């Protein structure tokens, strides 16, 4: 299976995914693309020998469709079977999502359906939650709401700040996403729960 990964920033999830696709893994990373040409993850991808592409979304302003048409060029050229959104911070239009229906995954840093959207860790702290975590789901046109493919739970500890909790969740993301992708690439769809 050919996997394209979309990033917006440092790409730590992308690195974990690329590093997991070795040996008898049924998938290989064929492209890392970003909406930010300065995304740090692009350098890491190149260092790992993965093809990269960048389409700056800013010149397109509110023309979401125009940005996506430009992004689709290198993405389709890579002929991906699966698309992984990994720290990708742009909302995709239903047209783009439809094109990859059933084969586009995203990782969200909360135990969905709790805390869709942004600032998930602060919201969990404000709510006094004892647990937090991350969710891998299929991407549908409804933001952060597609069929769940996996979840990893972490404890909220006394004295946690949004940053300390984010770091603990991010470490869990780096375990969950590669495990879910491997199963997804083998055709499994029942959700995986960690630990
Ligand atoms: C992190 O907040 C992570 O929780 C979320 O996207 C952000 C950046 O992740 N999935 P990455 O390091 O770019 O993968």
The beta-strand count equals: 8
Mean pLDDT figure: 97
Helix content: 25-40%
Arrangement of strands in the largest sheet? 3-2-1-4-5-6-7-8
User: What's the number of helices?
Assistant: 6
What's the alpha carbon Rg, rounded to whole Å?
16 Å
Low-confidence stretches: none
Folded structure, characterized:
The protein is 35% helix and 23% strand. With 195 residues, it is α/β, with parallel strands linked by helices. Strands 3-2-1-4-5-6-7-8 form an eight-stranded mixed β-sheet, sandwiched between helices. The chain is globular and about 45 Å long. The model has no long low-confidence stretch (mean pLDDT 97). 5-O-phosphono-beta-D-ribofuranosylamine binds next to helix 1 and helix 6.
Describe the secondary-structure layout.
Elements: E1 2-7, H1 12-20, E2 28-34, H2 40-47, E3 52-54, H3 64-77, E4 82-85, H4 94-99, E5 104-108, H5 120-126, E6 131-138, E7 148-155, H6 162-185, E8 192-194
Parallel strand pairs: 1-2, 1-4, 2-3, 4-5, 7-8
Antiparallel strand pairs: 5-6, 6-7
Helix pairs in contact: 1-6
The protein binds 5-O-phosphono-beta-D-ribofuranosylamine.
Binding site for (6R)-10-formyltetrahydrofolate: 62, 106
InterPro entries: Formyl_transf_N, Formyl_transf_N_sf, GART
Family: Belongs to the GART family.
């Amino acid at each position: 299976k050919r996997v394209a990964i979309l990033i917006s920033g440092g790409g730590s999830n992308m690195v974990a995914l690329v590093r997991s696709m070795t040996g008898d893994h049924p998938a290989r990373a064929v492209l890392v693309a970003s909406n930010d040409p300065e995304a740090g993850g692009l350098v890491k991808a190149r260092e790992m020998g993965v093809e990269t592409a960048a389409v700056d979304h800013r010149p397109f302003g509110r023309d979401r469709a125009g940005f996506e048409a430009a992004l689709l060029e290198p993405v389709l050229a890579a002929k991906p079977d699966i698309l992984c959104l990994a720290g990708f911070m742009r909302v995709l239009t239903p047209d783009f999502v439809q094109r990859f229906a059933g084969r586009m995954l995203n990782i969200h840093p909360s135990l969905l359906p709790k805390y869709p959207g942004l600032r998930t860790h602060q919201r969990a702290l404000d709510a006094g939650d004892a647990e937090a975590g991350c969710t891998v789901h299929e991407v549908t046109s409804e933001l952060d709401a597609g069929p769940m493919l996996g979840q990893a739970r972490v404890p909220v500890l006394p004295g946690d700040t949004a940053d300390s909790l984010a770091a603990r969740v991010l470490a869990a993301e780096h375990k969950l996403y590669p495990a879910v992708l491997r199963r997804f690439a083998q055709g499994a769809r029942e959700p995986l729960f960690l630990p």
